[in-house]
Write a structure and sequence with these properties.
Number of strands: 6
Number of helices: 9
CATH superfamily: Outer membrane efflux proteins (OEP)
Strand content: 5-15%
Strand order of the largest sheet: 2-3-5-6
Distance between the termini: 51 Å
Radius of gyration: 39 Å
Number of domains: 1
Structural class: alpha+beta
CATH topology: Outer membrane efflux proteins (OEP)
Order of helices and strands: HEHHEEHHEHHEEHH
CATH architecture: Up-down Bundle
Largest sheet: 4 strands, antiparallel
Length: about 425
């Protein structure tokens, strides 16, 4: 009775740890749990916080300051604040409050705020690039696992076919119409099929480990994939893909935002050639009591301009201009790389589709050849070697078609990545 009760518990535990997942489910989970995506989201938040901090220079500054001074060799100078005079003595207290605001800075505040905004947009573009990279990894891992699973199924079929051929050969041997060597040849093929099946199962398990790692399932979770491995297709041509990618790809937009940032850095350096105008309202108090009474109120406008402070301003501006020019050249290089990547990925996709068509034809021919060889062997007109070779060719044709299908799906996934086609 205890054994009978324990068995259902083990079955429940096994089922609870079994995850059979489709492509859409894999994409959804992968984008939710990805560490690189979470990391980049935090980078976006950091840049947004830094952007918010650039509002400070537009706000007035309020300061308060207090102090105590003891004169060791004689009293303090006379106080003339608020029309009063007289020696303050050796112990002097002071308090100062001020309110200041910069009226003009040559565009420095604006350049820094706009540059910080460009950094925010740049980090958001980088987040999109991380997402498309993770999406590609999920797709390739999923299609590879699904393809390996189909290879396992084909090799199971091959194993069953080899077993039936062995049974047929044994029956013919017992009937005296087949040789002992025919039985041995069939047994060798059956053993070979068993080994190939075992290899395929291990390849499938390794493919599942790749997918399991990306989706961050627990090591003891039983993962499986579901889906139809079909020949993929895309409606857009090469020129359309290139044209759209140059407008939407995150790395292109990232560099555009970097150019905007460097343009604002140049404006920052340029602002050093303009004067600064500040306004300040100030109240000062100084007395011999801890709460000073003698008060002095002032309002001032300060115009400052460095007539000569070395050659730094000039060369800093020239360096910023060179950085901006270099960034523009880098943008053109990125665009050239984008065109090349899409062109190569498109050709790989076309080749993969052609391979699918060729292996479909190869499978039809191999299946016809096997059926003919099997029929001839049953009526005693064919030999076992021809039948076993036909069975091997059929098995290989099935595997090649499966491999070409998941490689075609991976090729399309890569094309969508480099062309920045979002389908999630």
């Amino acid at each position: 009775m205890k054994i009978i009760l324990i068995i259902p518990i083990f079955i429940i535990l096994f089922i609870s740890n079994l995850h059979s997942i489709t492509l859409d489910e894999a994409i959804k989970r992968g984008l939710e749990v990805s560490f690189p995506i979470k990391q980049q989201k935090e980078a976006v938040k950091s840049s947004e916080y830094q952007y918010n901090s650039t509002l400070d220079p537009y706000l007035p500054k309020a300061n308060i300051q207090g102090g105590y001074t003891r004169y060791l060799y004689g009293g303090a100078a006379s106080s003339r604040s608020s029309g009063t005079s007289g020696a303050l003595g050796n112990d002097v207290y002071n308090a100062t409050g001020s309110l200041s605001y910069r009226l003009y800075d040559g565009g420095l505040r604006s350049a820094r705020r706009q540059g910080s905004e460009s950094v925010v947009e740049r980090e958001k573009e980088k987040l999109e690039y991380v997402k498309i990279d993770i999406l590609f990894n999920i797709k390739t891992a999923f299609f590879t696992a699904l393809g390996k699973k189909n290879v396992v199924d084909k090799r199971k079929e091959a194993y069953e076919t080899s077993r039936k051929i062995l049974e047929l050969t044994k029956a013919r041997y017992e009937a005296g119409v087949a040789k002992k060597s025919d039985v041995l040849q069939s047994e060798v093929r059956l053993t070979s099929s068993k080994i190939e099946l075992f290899d395929a199962e291990k390849d499938f398990e390794k493919a599942l480990e790749d997918l399991n790692s990306i989706l961050l399932f627990k090591p003891d979770d039983k993962l499986d994939v579901e889906g139809n491995l079909a020949s993929p297709s895309i409606k857009e041509n090469l020129d359309t893909l290139v044209e759209r990618a140059l407008k939407t790809r995150p790395d292109v937009n990232y560099q555009l935002k970097e150019i905007e940032r460097l343009d604002n850095v140049y404006k920052e350096k340029k602002s050093e050639w303009y004067p600064k105008l500040d306004a300040e309202l100030k109240q000062s108090r100084i007395d011999k009591t801890i709460i000073p009474n003698n008060r002095q109120d002032t309002f001032g406008l300060t115009l400052s301009y460095p007539i000569f402070d070395g050659v730094g301003r000039y060369y800093n501006m020239k360096a910023a201009a060179s950085d901006l020019s270099a960034a523009r050249f880098k943008l053109e290089e990125i665009k050239r790389t984008v065109r090349l990547e899409i062109a190569k990925a498109y050709k790989d996709y076309e080749l993969s589709i052609e391979n699918v068509k060729l292996y479909q034809e190869f499978l039809r021919e191999a299946n016809t050849n096997f059926e003919q060889a099997l029929g001839e062997y049953k009526i005693g007109r064919g030999d076992i070697l021809a039948l076993l070779q036909a069975e091997k060719d059929l098995t290989k044709a099935k595997e090649n078609l499966v491999t070409s299908l998941y490689q075609a799906n991976n090729a399309l996934a890569h094309l969508k990545k480099v062309a920045y086609i979002i389908d999630y």
